[in-house]
Write a structure and sequence with these properties.
Number of strands: 0
Distance between the termini: 37 Å
Radius of gyration: 28 Å
Shape: elongated
């Protein structure tokens, strides 16, 4: 019975993965047959490039700009791959700069493989570069595959309904927020609600972060994501501290306030016309002017939600974009680039390793005129991963899978019925490969079987097997050395860098607040800091889950305190922007912000900082809590915190 159960489980898993991979498999096979028929098997490598882009983009929201960008980038990378094969100096230059720039442009600590679609296009097209006479045909094949890619992405998005719909996601999230507020008003489970609100806030932070631009141009949809992340974060902050939540529930009018906020959220979700937004805006302003709640977290939460809803009412409707020419903030672009080029930056460390590996492997392949030398850079590219641990894992699983794949071809190849059998077996192998999880030992079995079977069209089967294993051994040696000695991204040091980054972001936020006391600051600056903080926080929290229980509890508690501090920091900024500091109080608040900026990174001298210079209002309350949490971290008592948003 146990064996039968395991077989059933395996079959169910296979069917599930087959269904998930079927669109990619179908797209590959259709492309492969059309390209080999129209252009010849010489250009079959182009099919893998567009299939990778389809696999990466099929569940993403794709618009006309995305389709145009994919097509233009594919053509550009095709030309660069061709140029890399013209001379050894171009090979060295382009194999260093192109992967480096692609990682800096597309990848981040939170989307470490964002470069993979375009990088694989460059690498794959360079593996078998065309001659000058063949280049027009290859460009035509790339254009043809790009057209098929756009058609496939459009059809998949419409037929599967799995592509992200920003407007629909916002509407569903607002409906859920209103439900949670009503549940909390009636005594619902605050822990469950807090975790769900946190996840909603994190998802919008991620969507906003993913829409960042290289030139940092204004983006309306990105601003919407940040505002909604802010809305959910404030609701999450209300319930994550058990003691403060208990006091909030004991506040007179608690249930009425929560139901009122839920109703306002529903009105925002239902509003469609400008007149409806104007009426809701007037209602929100009236409520802000007649707040009768006592000082405390519930009052701060209520007013901050009202302010955020007011900002959302004043924004243009989602999807209504006007064509405008924007001024590029070159100083911000340069500052962001300098930060990314820092040796401590995740992107720089991975970009440098990838560039070095591709430069060495591709140069060796270029200079060494031997059969199938392009397998050396191909293996090296697939073995090198953003994290040291993942690369080390692949240096075990890939050789095992490759060896099994070689054995499979050795056993099956003699029985294949000629050229049709070779092509049929190859398509079956590539189809099974797309069903497997990348990085496991199973996937290389089928990728190796596919590559070896196609290689038998030009070399003997046994020779192809030995070459495959030899080039893999070379790639393992190269990646092992580079990963060991060139800025490795190990998880434990990255966790320490993340903790330092959380403090640095708070200091930066205080610097921006200090500037905002004197002159208006673009809200996008605050949004970027907020989004960056929560992305770093989430990655750090994920790492703590892998630690021993005692260490995990210690670090998770400290992270929760940092999360509360940044939420209080953001609320303080919101109050300042809404007039909580009168002109006479600006110098005192500016001095306080400067002190906190210099004492939060690293934490020191907190006993000498007091918010007594401020009137005892909401802003005083928030900054007092911020200082209390900072002192808790500094004194090492963070382990006393009992509630975690990551529980």
């Amino acid at each position: 019975m146990g064996a039968i159960s395991k077989v059933k489980d395996f079959w169910a898993l296979f069917v599930r993965r087959w269904r998930n991979a079927f669109p990619t498999i179908l797209f590959y096979i259709v492309q492969f047959l059309l390209v080999t028929e129209l252009f010849g098997t010489t250009y079959a490598m182009v099919v893998s490039c567009s299939t990778t882009l389809f696999q990466v983009r099929r569940r993403e929201p794709n618009g006309p700009g995305d389709y145009l960008r994919m097509c233009l980038m594919s053509l550009l990378l095709c030309l660069l791959a061709f140029a890399a094969g013209r001379s050894v100096w171009l090979c060295i230059l382009l194999n260093f700069t192109v992967p480096f720039c692609l990682v800096l442009w597309r990848s981040s600590q939170f989307t470490p493989k964002g470069h993979i679609g375009y990088a694989m296009t460059f690498v794959f097209l360079e593996l078998r570069p065309p001659t000058l006479e063949q280049l027009p045909t290859q460009l035509a094949a790339v254009v043809f595959c790009c057209v098929l890619l756009v058609i496939a992405l459009v059809l998949y998005g419409r037929l599967s309904h799995t592509a992200v719909d920003p407007a629909g996601q916002i509407s569903r999230s607002l409906t859920r927020l209103a439900q949670l507020l009503d549940d909390l008003a009636g005594g619902g489970d605050s822990k469950t609600a807090g975790k769900e609100l946190y996840e909603l806030a994190r998802s919008f932070h991620r969507m906003g972060y993913d829409r960042r631009h290289l030139l940092q141009l204004p983006d309306q949809q990105k601003r919407f994501y940040h505002l909604f992340a802010l809305l959910f974060q404030r609701a999450s902050y209300l319930v994550t501290d058990e003691e403060a939540w208990r006091r909030a529930r004991e506040t007179p009018g608690f249930s009425r306030i929560m139901h009122t906020l839920a109703d306002l959220v529903r009105q925002l979700q239902a509003a469609r016309e400008n007149q409806e937004f104007q009426q809701l805006s007037a209602q929100l302003q009236s409520l802000l002017q007649h707040t009768d709640l006592p000082q405390g977290r519930l009052r701060i939460f209520s007013r901050s939600v009202l302010h955020t809803l007011l900002l959302l009412c004043r924004e243009p409707l989602p999807g209504h974009h006007s064509v405008r020419l924007y001024h590029v903030p070159w100083s911000s672009v340069w500052q962001n680039l300098r930060q990314r080029l820092s040796p401590g930056c995740f992107e720089f460390r991975f970009a440098l390793r990838l560039s070095v590996v591709m430069t060495i492997s591709c140069t060796v392949s270029y200079l060494w005129e031997f059969e199938h030398t392009y397998w050396f850079p191909l293996h090296a590219y697939l073995l090198l991963q953003p994290s040291y641990e993942e690369s080390a894992h692949r240096m075990v699983t890939r050789p095992v899978g490759t060896a099994i794949g070689c054995l499979l071809v050795h056993l099956v190849y003699p029985y294949l019925p000629g050229l049709p059998g070779v092509f049929l077996f190859s398509l079956v192998m590539i189809s099974l490969m797309y069903c497997c999880t990348p990085g496991t030992w199973v996937q290389p079995i089928f990728s190796t079987a596919f590559a070896l079977t196609m290689a038998t069209l030009t070399v003997k089967e046994t020779e192809a097997i030995w070459l495959r294993l030899f080039y893999l051994a070379m790639a393992v040696a190269l990646v092992l050395v580079v990963n060991r000695f060139l800025l490795p991204n190990r998880r434990e040091p990255q966790f320490r860098r993340n903790l330092q980054e959380l403090y640095r972001l708070q200091a930066n936020y205080w610097a921006v607040i200090r500037r905002s006391l004197r002159r208006p600051v673009d809200p996008a600056v605050f949004s970027e800091l907020l989004s960056r903080f929560h992305m770093v926080y989430h990655e750090a929290a994920q790492y703590t889950g892998q630690l021993p229980p005692e260490q995990a509890a210690y670090h998770q508690a400290r992270l929760v305190v940092m999360w509360n501090m940044f939420a209080e920091l953001e609320q303080a900024e919101g109050m300042i922007q809404n007039g909580a500091v009168c002109p006479e109080e600006i110098p005192a608040m500016e001095a306080l912000a400067r002190e906190l900026e210099t004492h939060v990174d690293p934490l020191r001298g907190l006993e000498e900082i007091h918010p007594e210079v401020l009137p005892r209002d909401e802003l005083y309350y928030v900054i007092s809590r911020y200082l209390d949490n900072a002192r808790t971290l500094h004194s090492g008592d963070a382990t006393r915190v009992e509630i975690s948003v990551e529980e």
